[in-house]
Amino acid sequence: MRRLDINCFAEMSVFVRVVEDGGYTAAAKSCAMSPSAVSKLVSRLESRLGARLLNRSTRRQLLTPEGAAFYERCLTILAALDEAEQEAAASSAPQGIVRVNCNVDIGRLYLLPLLNEFLEHHPGVSVEVYLSDEVVDLISSRADVAIRSGPLKNSNLVARRLGETRTLIVASPAYLEAHGTPQVPSELAAHNCLGFTFSQPVMEWGLREKNGEAISVPVAGNARVSDGNGVRDLALLGLGLARVGFCQVEQDLAAGRLLPVLEDYLPAVKTEVHAVYVGQGGRLPTRVRVFMDFLAAHLTIR
């Protein structure tokens, strides 16, 4: 039987704060404790478990494999405790902050316009949205939910499908008039292809031959931007070809401000969009669960 003088939930809560805040000092502020007390608590926890949970350095603490597994279980247990307390309370209305990381275009076009309705339905919840086209780590960014497009890597993230979109290559009429319209993928080598600051040093665009064979085409350009909306803006200015999501340029295509190219060589498979969260098999806090349910019911991506 577990000793009653060990406050396991308090230990778990402090350990989670050390992981998510990035160190003892920051966690101490969150927990209203001294850094030395936080350090002693984690050391006592490691001694009781018989396993090192964190590798200390002068700047930050990194999870060991055992620490990462224990962290995931802590999240599950603390979420279940939070859920139980809310269900037992006189009012079971969800409360707290939901932190969401989302790429710029989906956030701007789909997520942000829905927030007013969500917040009206759940007045006890507030939402913090961080827009970035870079794939962030949910733990280090302290995000509850991330909305991501593209194939998901094997991980401890739980995914909920929100829809799918497709990508295409576009350019302004002025650019195509000045530089010509590429007819086959190999002709991309002669064009200025706009890219992203966070992509790999050697840019490649995934296309397909007319027989369906997948190909990767090296491309190059003289301008890169940190998000898709910036790439769209450069394309509208006539700087080059841009590979973007359909949702991002739908209105520009309808108005003729941008024109599609190489449509016969674009992959037929659409890109799936998911909402992901940490905690394989665990129960979500109510505030996160109602947000995920709302997204699944109201977010329509194409």
In short:
The protein has about 300 residues and is of the alpha/beta class.
Describe the fold and architecture.
The structure is a single chain. The protein is of the alpha/beta class. It folds into three domains: 8-88, Arc Repressor Mutant, subunit A; 96-155 and 277-298, Periplasmic binding protein-like II (D-Maltodextrin-Binding Protein, domain 2), CATH 3.40.190; 167-269, 3-Layer(aba) Sandwich (D-Maltodextrin-Binding Protein, domain 2). The chain has eleven helices and 14 strands. The strands form five sheets. Strands 4-3-5-14-6 form a five-stranded mixed sheet. Strands 12-7-13 form a three-stranded antiparallel sheet. It has a two-stranded antiparallel ribbon with strand order 1-2. Strand 1 and strand 2 (61-63) form a beta hairpin. Helix 1 crosses helix 2 (24-31) and helix 1 packs across helix 3 (35-49). The longest helix is centred in the first third of the chain and has 24 residues, at 65-88. The chain is elongated. The relative contact order is 0.16.
Number of helices: 11
For the terminal residues, how far apart are their CA atoms?
Answer: 54 Å
Mean pLDDT across residues: 83
Helix content: 25-40%
Based on the structure given, which CATH architecture of the largest domain is correct? 3-Layer(aba) Sandwich
Overall number of domains: 3
Question: How many whole angstroms does the radius of gyration measure?
Answer: 24 Å
